[in-house]
Amino acid sequence: MTVILGGNRFVDCQNILSHKGNLVLRVRMSPLHVEINPPPDIPGDSNPVVHVNSERSCGVFTTSDRAVALATLLDPEREIVHLTLDLRPLGMNIYDDPQGLHVGNNLFTMNVVEGAVTAISLG
Description:
This protein is mostly beta strands. It has no helices and 14 strands.
């Protein structure tokens, strides 16, 4: 599976993001699913798990109806997913925009991470 996020490609990565060794963000197939686990020690809405799913998309929202992740299945045969992400409502300064993937003060753009257990590990 390939996840496109902020112009970066995460290819066959088990997890996209972790914090202090704990899973924060993962995308799964069959059916398409985005898993988000906010770290308990970070202030913010710690309960984002309002999922809205269809055959080719998955959305994760806060309980106050703010989208934190929107995944769209672009190519089912090759398992290519486009992910839009904004974890700021959850207290993490991580989001994507046309410039790339913002992680704190860092900007990731046009990178390929392949076969990683965790592509981005924080803390």
